[in-house]
Design goal:
- The complex is a heterodimer of chains A (241) and B (152).
- With 241 residues, chain A is of the alpha/beta class.
- In chain A, 39% of the residues lie in helices and 15% in strands.
- Chain A has a seven-stranded mixed beta sheet with strand order 3-2-1-4-6-5-7, sandwiched between helices.
- In chain A, helix 5 runs parallel beside helix 7.
- Chain A is globular and about 45 Å long.
- Chain A starts with a strand and ends in a 16-residue tail after the last helix.
- The relative contact order of chain A is 0.17.
- Chain B is an all-alpha fold.
- Chain B has four helices and no strands.
- In chain B, helix 2 crosses helix 3, helix 2 runs antiparallel to helix 4 and helix 3 packs across helix 4.
- The N and C termini of chain B lie far apart (132 Å).
- The chains are: A alpha/beta (241), B mainly alpha (152).
- Chains A and B meet through strand 3 and helix 3 of A and helix 4 of B.
Chain lengths: 241, 152
């Protein structure tokens, strides 16, 4: 099975070596780093460690960066794509768990959730306030997307060929994770969660501060409320299958 | 007959300003700084404003029809809607162009990676060719020296 790891990175030259080293130990995994217009050595570091580098000429934000990875996966004929954050919060040890439902054909999109119990201790679960926000998003997703997800903001997820094709065509911008789940559910893809443990980030700060968090919730509320009942026909993001 | 809605001087000034705006938009289109498509709404709405300024009685009729007591308030409302509509169309254009930029940037990244792959493949092939050539030359030298030995 052809397997691609998509690592969106914006000024992550410090964290990237840890992530790429860990991913390099996974057999049969191609790694592609999407450099989202970084000002540091992100692209150089990624290339020196043998990853394919997709270097965006301008900063598109996480949504545009991740979609670039999905488009690469789509064009290169990968059967499965795994999204892994560059800040080393995601432990590649959980890749097998993430991939198992895809290989078994039980799901098209598998999300690594911090909030499902794995019986192995809890790991990093973010702050109480953020957890409340996440719970609110779960509720919205259940109401509007008809999908039960405990950790809709998790960026640790695996996509089948079908989901890759969908995300290559449509992918939300600006805090895209929960919306992408809703899109997948609306397109009739099977969404599943598996428990994972996450680590706090090593270097640097989370990209989401207090004001951004308010914007995050407002934006997602609106986008999930306005989610079309069906995909409007013929209106895609310009990618031909 | 009612008093004129707008003093003549002000009316002339407003008409002048609107005509100036029209001329400006037309000039922008002619110099290709503004696409015709984007200029249409400006031209249309500015023309409408000009007609209202030239014949303020229309405004009085419109205000009465709408039940607005003071015609100048209808004018303010009209002006506000005029700006809002143009602003919204501008935002739509900006959204559209952001979407295109995103596409183009992504395409750019994909092509760059594709190019890097191709370059690596070509370099690899060149290297192999060089090696083969050297090997062939080496064999040729050996053969030549062999013949020389035989001749001796």
């Amino acid at each position: 099975m052809r397997l691609l790891a998509i690592v969106p990175a914006y000024n992550e030259a410090q964290n990237l070596p840890h992530v790429l080293e860990a991913l390099g130990r996974v057999p049969g995994l191609d790694v592609c780093v999407v450099d989202d217009g970084s000002g540091d050595e992100t692209a150089k570091v990624a290339a020196s460690m043998g990853a394919t580098v997709l270097r965006l000429p301008v900063n598109l934000g996480i949504g545009g960066a991740v979609q670039t990875g999905y488009r690469w996966a789509f064009e290169k004929g990968y059967e499965v794509a795994v999204q892994v954050d560059a800040d080393d919060q995601h432990d590649p040890a959980f890749l097998t768990a993430l991939l198992e439902p895809l290989e078994a054909g039980r799901a098209d999109l598998v999300i690594g959730s911090r909030f499902l119990s794995s019986g192995e201790g809890e790991g990093f679960r973010s702050t109480a306030l953020r957890r409340a926000g996440i719970r609110y998003l779960s509720l919205l997703l259940r109401l509007r997307g008809g999908v039960r997800v405990t950790d809709p903001t998790s960026g640790f997820r695996a996509a089948s060929r079908k989901a890759i094709a969908l995300f290559a065509r449509h992918y939300p911008s600006d805090y895209p994770e929960p919306e992408a789940v809703a899109l997948a559910a609306r397109a009739g893809l099977a969404v599943l969660e598996v428990p994972v443990r996450m680590r706090p980030r090593r270097h640097g700060r989370s990209s989401i501060g207090a004001a951004a968090a308010a914007y995050y919730l407002a934006k997602l509320s609106v986008s999930l409320l306005l989610l079309p009942a069906r995909e409007p026909p013929g209106r895609d993001d310009g990618v031909r299958a | 007959m009612n008093a004129p809605l707008i003093p003549l001087g002000l009316q002339l000034l407003a008409c002048g300003v609107l005509l100036g705006l029209l001329a400006w938009v037309a000039a922008l289109v002619r110099r290709r700084r503004l696409s015709l498509r984007d200029s249409l709404l400006w031209l249309l709405s500015t023309l409408l404003a000009l007609v209202l300024m030239a014949f303020p009685e229309l405004l009085r009729v419109g205000a009465r029809a709408l039940g607005v007591e003071v015609p100048s308030n209808a004018l303010f409302a009209f002006g506000f809607v005029y700006v809002l509509v143009n602003l919204l169309s501008l935002t739509i254009a900006a959204s559209d162009s952001a979407e295109r930029t995103r596409r183009l940037a992504q395409e750019c990244a994909l092509l760059r990676a594709e190019l890097a792959e191709l370059r690596a493949a070509v370099a690899q092939k060149e290297k192999e060719k060089e090696k083969e050539k050297k090997q062939a030359e080496g064999e040729g030298d050996q053969a030549a020296s062999g013949r020389a030995d035989a001749a001796r």
